[in-house]
Amino acid sequence: MNFRTARQTSTSQTSTRPASTPHRSAGRRAALRYTGLGTAAVLALALSACSAEDGSAGADSDAVSGDITLLTPIYEGAAGQRLLEDELLPQFYEQYPDVTVTVDYTNFARLNEKLTTGVVSGLVPDVMMMGVGWVEAFADKGVLANLSESGISVADLEKSTTPEIVQAGVWEGDVYGVPIMLDARFGVARMDLLREAGYDAPPSTWAELVEMAEALTVRSENGALERAGFDVLSLDARQMYETMLFSSGGSLFNDDNTAPAFNSAEGVEALESVVDLIHTSKVEDTGYSSTKETVNPLINGRAAMGIAHNNLWTQTLEAAPELLPELEPFLIPGDAPGMFVGGTLATMSKGSEHPAAAQALLEFLASPGPALAANEQRGNIPALTELLDSEYAQGNRLVQFSMENLDVAKREGGPSEWLGLRGEIAPAIESALLAQKTPKQALDDLADVFAGKMGG
Amino acid sequence: MVTPAVAHIGLWTALPVLATFALSLTDYNIFDAPRWIGIDNYIQIWNDPTFRLATWNTVVYTFWTVPVSMAIAMVIAVALNQNLWLRTWYRTAFFLPQVTATVAIAMVWLWIYNPQQGLLNAALSVIGIPGQAWLADPDWSLWAVILVGAWQGIGIKMLIYIAALQNVDNSLYEAASVDGASVVRKFFAITLPMLKPATFFVLVISIIGAFQVFDQIYVLTDGGPANATTMMTYEVYRSAFQNFQMGLASAQSVCLFAFLLVMTLISRRATRGDDE
Question: How far is B151 from chain A (nearest CA, A)?
Fold first, then answer.
């Protein structure tokens, strides 16, 4: 069955030390209670046990010392920095008073630059937060410490962590990254706008989605778009396409990650569907929205439905909490139910001069309390399964929806060349959305670029 | 006496330039040691449609931003060289974009160009002209970037022209006035020729600056949509810091250097004359 047929049915660096008793917001207290559970986590046990065995890291806190660096694209913004420096690191310092952590803040868009300059200059941060698809390249090139050598196995992680994200930290069977959070992309509908148009549920088939999107699109008398029926432009073009691709049953690469597979019939139809939404159904105009929008159009009513990130819930909570009951998530109806999932993993430098301190920090940040606080700040999905019962996760409809559908989620990445490939996807998708190329032509050209870079 | 200067130039200029040339002949992915591959990077650049597009975009950007901003700067400089009320205030106002961080300027222009809430579309709607998705439409995005570049470049050019104008002997204008020359005649017969050395200087630094445009692309468009605004420097950045291809990025930098050298020589020839 083909896709269409189925459907018809910033940066700053700060050195931190405990200066005063941390001030904890009421909202964080519940999260931080989990800190006490950290030592009980499988990950923590595995890490500390192995540390003690090789003597390199300490179950004995007194033996852990040194000045270490943390490179992080999470804990972003003033709120993130406050969380890390005023709440989390002081707890870490209580346990490890002889360790000093210098934090280098960045975001995922600029993380590559930081890592590149770090590797070239030989100053790789001791602990690095990475996204899904990043670990492979740095593990393959020997930049990251093999955590399996410290005794942490895939099986250990899968006992405590959502299995879908565990593999993102695994390279050639060994663990190089410990997941902290997941983030998903799926359809979201504004139910108040749907009800106004006579619909009482999100679309369950692609044909329904197109029909509803057309009905929900609002244009002024001169044809200017005032409300998009279905927004596909607020999300990064690569992630938007991958959400569609995975919902069509397609994949980025073949099974052994040696060749591109997105230009399959499923992949082409996925992109054709998006192009048709814009050029045939005219439910959104190119340029109507972009990743640079400060307010998601689903929040300010400039879109009735769209593909969104799970942190839309947190954004709405801050901007217009009265709309939270109106946000209804749904899987993009395609050949196969699918969802894009990314995430953040904690990794360690292989060349760290203070491996025990670095390991202690990694262990701390991945433990339940700090991980839950980081997820809450960022509006993401905790990777530790025990946190899914937390007040935060239970109270976040989009996190709940993501968790309920993780069995159909797919992640990006795979081959070690991924970081050199990912930047090529958005321009190719844009060329199709702008009708400069047909979807098939755009994807075939992109596949040629991928094949060339993958040595195919 | 010259040893410190030679050492400084050798260490901070000559050595990096030579290293760039050397790296351009290698496959260097930052993780492994550079591997000699001869001119393969240059062949890849030659066959890369994105870099060709980036080169073309850079040429178009330079072609429009440099002469346009030079002409506007010269007119403003001549005007502000007169005894105008609030002259110093005007000079400061025109120079301000030059000393403001491009990132901050680009953020303002992002708002101006916003298709829904932006100032430009709002202004156009007043006179009945439909708005555009300035930065999202490949037919408009490069022009939108060019406008920002031209606007931002006016300040420093104006300053250089004002400095040059103050060295023009006033007796020339007095003699021309006695002969009955009009303002326009005096501009073309006296001001323009006397500004020729300054014009050459402004032209060269403007071309170099335009070819090195990066930060406004980085903030405004990320090279998009569909690479419509990507530039040579942006491709160097992408190769080096996004794709880990330092050898390729070095080769692209060498191409940029060669382009700048040729453009500077052409400028030199075009403006050669009275100053020699």
Answer: 23
